[in-house]
Specification:
This protein has about 375 residues and is α/β, with parallel strands linked by helices. It has 16 helices and 13 strands.
Length: about 375
């Protein structure tokens, strides 16, 4: 039995990108299941991911209530997009007068939510605080640093994240809660196996294909790096089937640079519904990606991962032997994917016990008493 004040605690949750929908699903479920009448959550969807396969279908698959606000802000440069978000989120916060603004991860939506709340003196709670790539060329790194600096509650997924914040002098309001993505992985893994028919639809078999994703600006915005990535996928596909769900922005850049020839042997598909993506991750022989979330999901599924970056925020996956940093050299990517060492035998659980969402909501509820 949870106790609370007469007025329900009001939380405005800001999401805008595919990974944030997944994380918010876990926390929102705890609020709905255990804090009805005690916490009122208002979901604000910035619209950063505008494709139906990147947003609407996620609300359906993850059983997230439709957002109270859909700001429909997407496209343009970082400055233009973030500026429009600032203006629109400010209006929402002024109208709704929340007790907390809850933000997730490291997107422009995250930064906009954090800055609006801080300037209006509304407490900020940041889920996935303390992650660092130490690569300031990544827009995500800048977003993380600034969001953490103005947050009042910092929910860290790992001990490493707590240490990162401590080195920056941030100790107050820091909580190691575990990773909400692990909560999601545990909750949906059996459902994905039972309900998704994606393997049959794509004509691939368990353990008999490579799953690839690519969306990071550092890889897509540089034509040379992007060619290394798609050329690597084409070479891998000569030896084993490759399934490549393509982010709309990545597809546009591949086409504009005339790089489609490298993908002739690759099974290129639209962004997939959540359960289909989980099913592919569970079943792949190897996952090749530049996504932070997919690196972790590979680890949760105990599938070897090749990361097309020079660094990762999820250092535990590398330390435990499940993740190889290959950069964007086509030779290194191909070698790592085709000659990946046998997966290590480890039961390590650096991302918690699957109850991060419960801890986050409990801290929010108690912190406002």
């Amino acid at each position: 039995m949870h106790t609370g004040s007469a007025r329900a605690l009001r939380i405005v949750t800001v999401v805008g990108a595919r990974p944030q929908f997944i994380k918010a699903a876990a926390v929102s479920r705890v609020i709905r299941d255990h804090y009805t009448g005690l916490i009122e959550e208002l979901l604000v969807h910035t619209g950063q991911h505008f494709d139906d396969n990147m947003s609407r279908v996620f609300f359906d698959d993850l059983d997230i209530p439709r957002p109270e606000y859909n700001l429909e802000i997407s496209g343009g440069g970082h400055g233009a997009m973030t500026g429009r978000m600032l203006e629109a989120i400010e209006t929402v916060v002024l109208d709704e007068k929340p007790d907390w603004v809850l933000i997730y991860g490291d997107t422009n939506s995250t930064l906009a939510g954090a800055l609006v709340a801080a300037k209006l003196h509304v407490p900020v709670a940041h889920v996935e605080a303390g992650l660092r790539s130490f690569n300031m060329r990544m827009p995500e790194e800048i977003n993380r640093l600034l969001a953490d600096r103005v947050s009042n509650l910092l929910f860290c997924p790992t001990e490493t994240a707590v240490r990162n914040l401590a080195r920056e002098g941030i100790c107050d309001g820091v909580h190691e809660v575990g990773d909400v993505m692990y909560d999601v992985a545990l909750y949906y893994r059996n459902r994905a196996r039972q309900e998704s028919s994606i393997l049959e639809r794509l004509g691939v078999v368990e353990g008999g294909f490579v799953l690839a994703t690519c969306h990071r600006a550092e890889n897509t915005d540089d034509a040379g790096r992007l060619e290394e990535v798609v050329a690597a996928l084409g070479l891998i596909a000569e030896a084993i089937p490759v399934v490549f769900p393509v982010h709309p922005r990545t597809r546009k850049l591949v086409d504009s640079h005339g790089l489609g020839r490298h993908l002739e042997r690759v099974t290129v598909v639209e962004p997939l519904p959540f359960l289909d993506m989980i099913r592919l991750e569970q079943s792949a022989r190897v996952i090749v990606t530049d996504s932070g979330g997919v690196q972790k999901e590979a680890f949760f599924c105990r599938v070897p991962c090749v990361t097309m970056r020079d660094e990762t925020e999820w250092v535990e996956t590398v330390e435990l032997g499940w993740n190889t940093l290959a950069g964007v050299s086509r030779e290194r990517i191909v070698l790592a994917a085709l000659e990946s060492p046998p997966a290590p035998d480890t039961d390590a659980t650096p991302y918690g016990d699957g109850r991060a969402s419960e801890r986050i909501v409990e801290i929010l509820a108690n912190g406002a008493d």
